[in-house]
């Protein structure tokens, strides 16, 4: 068996992993599958900006937890936290009718961790799959919005300007299993960049429109049995190849629209409410922790402005295809 795996991450630098459990998990089929799952839900050919994979994000979460002094058990949980994602990630929530929550994969997480190859590897090294699968056991990995956690920090870092992400990474510290910033300027930079991504990407016109269109194509494909729901346990490419072979003119029309880097805006539209992502990070000042919104009026006003705008929903096109 491989004795060492070296990972060179674009944000965190070079890390060496020698723990057999980590090495086996990294090589496992469920984790390798994540290399072919787009983080943004829709593959590059049909999306307006360049993706990274769920694998890159999952490995990044593991590295971030390690860098903050998290236990090996929590690093494992970090590596596996997205292993239950289906093809097209959160697009599945739109297919099953839970677009505002984006929680479908959470409901499948226990089954994936507690069965098959992942379970066998964990048990081999005396780890309990049921404990690993429960996010509540790992406070560095997962916390509710608006707190910082390794999951939330990593996926944001991968969209921040590279040098900003690296600088903010150097400003993170772990206090009693809580991720905080060393100072207020770092907390402010992270929180405002995070809100900017919510506005211009995650909750923006292009992303919401594409999720709406693409999930529509998937629903059509399911209805006409071009694909089966079980296919979502494969990867993006597998289903895309099936869609491309469909003789359904509406599916092909949707794919054609999505290949453009800018979605046209027809006269007919509807309002969609997508999940609102934001943070209110804590920072250290003279040995005490403070929440950014409690100490910075600029950020408090900015957050409320974005929250109110989000509550109005996003106007997206209705295409007559």
Notes on the structure:
The chain has 321 residues and is mainly alpha-helical. It has one domain: Orthogonal Bundle (Hypothetical protein af1432), CATH 1.10.3210. 50% of the residues lie in helices and 10% in strands. It contains 16 helices and 8 strands. The chain has helices at residues 20-27, 29-33, 54-67, 72-80, 91-96, 104-113, 116-124, 129-132, 150-157, 162-170, 184-202, 205-223, 236-245, 249-259, 292-295, 297-311, and strands at 5-9, 13-17, 172-174, 179-181, 269-272, 282-285, 288-291, 314-317. The protein has a two-stranded antiparallel sheet with strand order 1-2. A two-stranded antiparallel ribbon has the order 3-4. Helix 3 (54-67) packs antiparallel against helix 4 (72-80), helix 3 (54-67) packs across helix 9 and helix 11 packs parallel to helix 16 (297-311). It is globular.
Helix content: 40-55%
Q: Which regions contain 5 or more consecutive residues with pLDDT less than 50?
A: none
Give the CATH superfamily.
Hypothetical protein af1432
Largest sheet: 2 strands, antiparallel
Class by helix and strand content? mainly alpha
The CATH class name reads: Mainly Alpha
What's the order of the H and E elements?
A: EEHHHHHHHHHHEEHHHHEEEHHE
Count, helices:
16
CATH fold topology: Hypothetical protein af1432
What topology emerges from the helices and strands here?
Blueprint: E1 5-9, E2 13-17, H1 20-27, H2 29-33, H3 54-67, H4 72-80, H5 91-96, H6 104-113, H7 116-124, H8 129-132, H9 150-157, H10 162-170, E3 172-174, E4 179-181, H11 184-202, H12 205-223, H13 236-245, H14 249-259, E5 269-272, E6 282-285, E7 288-291, H15 292-295, H16 297-311, E8 314-317
Antiparallel strand pairs: 1-2, 3-4, 5-8, 6-7
